[in-house]
Design goal:
The protein has 283 residues and is an alpha/beta fold. The chain is built from twelve helices and five strands. The chain has one domain: Rossmann fold, CATH 3.40.50.
């Protein structure tokens, strides 16, 4: 509406969790928009991981990824991103001003709702701390966050099929990201809505409820990549026998995934709560 503050909706997820499909759902046929130009695929900016590099903050090395990016390259990347998407923005010399004023400029350029999704962000606690800081440093921007959770077995199977990422190692990236998500909830409270990929594809009205929660207006087009067939697809692959580490399985259970959804072994059993739908609670 006229007179409202620009809003940003930041999708936080691991790789292969359905964030590209969710981004399409948020932006196609609605008043929400993502960047027009970025050197990365699927309209990802990696804005906050580049910001963390520029500011000298710690980041973990990710599997099959250029992250963390070297500080000088990260600064060049960020300035280039802003030059393409906000041509009138003059980059400040001060690094903190570049980061926070640059984000403000993007939010205003793609108002009323700017959508950002880069799976790299949830892996890095320093990126999440920067976002939480931006909430307070940019009071004229309204921040909303969507934590998109997916069964780690489905995510790992998808990553293995797409990029041949070894699930034995990738499972711990899922663990770190989703432990970070629970910690982040403590920082931003009700600004964060956690939703599972499974509820998006299986429960009528959940997608619309997410759009309403984000105050995104319009009639989104149907996203074909958001479908039920990918749920538990690893169980149908008789040659796929990976089993989660117990610490990863325990965290997945906190997000509501049942023993039957986490293992092919019938002996793996433990009672858990329902997974999150569109509640702003963390589990």
């Amino acid at each position: 509406m006229e007179g409202e503050s620009p809003r940003c909706v930041i999708v936080l997820s691991s790789k292969s969790s359905g964030s590209s499909a969710l981004q399409k759902l948020l932006c196609n046929g609605t008043n929400a928009r993502h960047v027009q130009h970025t050197r990365h695929g699927e309209y990802e900016t990696l804005f906050w991981t580049k910001a963390a590099s520029i500011l000298g903050l710690p980041q973990a090395q990710l599997l099959a990824s250029e992250v963390p990016i070297a500080p000088r390259k990260a600064r060049t990347d960020l300035i280039t991103l802003l030059a393409y998407n906000v041509p009138r923005f003059v980059p400040p010399n001060d690094d903190e001003a570049l980061v926070f004023e640059g984000w403000r400029a993007l939010c205003k350029r793609f108002a009323p709702v700017f959508v950002e999704k880069s799976p790299h962000h949830l892996q890095q606690w320093s990126c999440l701390e920067l976002m939480a800081s931006a909430v307070h440093r940019l009071p004229d921007i309204e921040f909303r966050f969507i934590g998109l959770v997916r069964n780690p077995m489905d995510m790992l199977y998808s990553a293995w099929r797409r990029w041949r990422l070894a699930p034995q190692a990738a499972q711990f990236e899922w663990f770190q990201a989703h432990r970070n998500l629970l910690r982040f909830k403590e920082l931003v409270g009700d600004r964060l809505t956690i939703v599972s990929y499974e509820t998006l594809v299986s429960q009528n009205g959940v997608a619309r409820a997410v759009l309403n929660k984000m105050d995104i207006e319009g009639a989104p087009v149907r996203v074909s990549s958001l479908h039920k067939n990918s749920v538990l697809s690893w169980k149908r692959d008789t040659g796929y026998g990976f089993q989660l580490d117990s610490t990863v399985a325990q965290l997945a259970a906190e997000y509501g995934y049942t023993p039957e959804e986490l293992s092919k072994q019938p002996a793996f059993r433990r009672r858990v709560t329902d997974r999150p739908a569109t509640s702003s609670t963390s589990a």
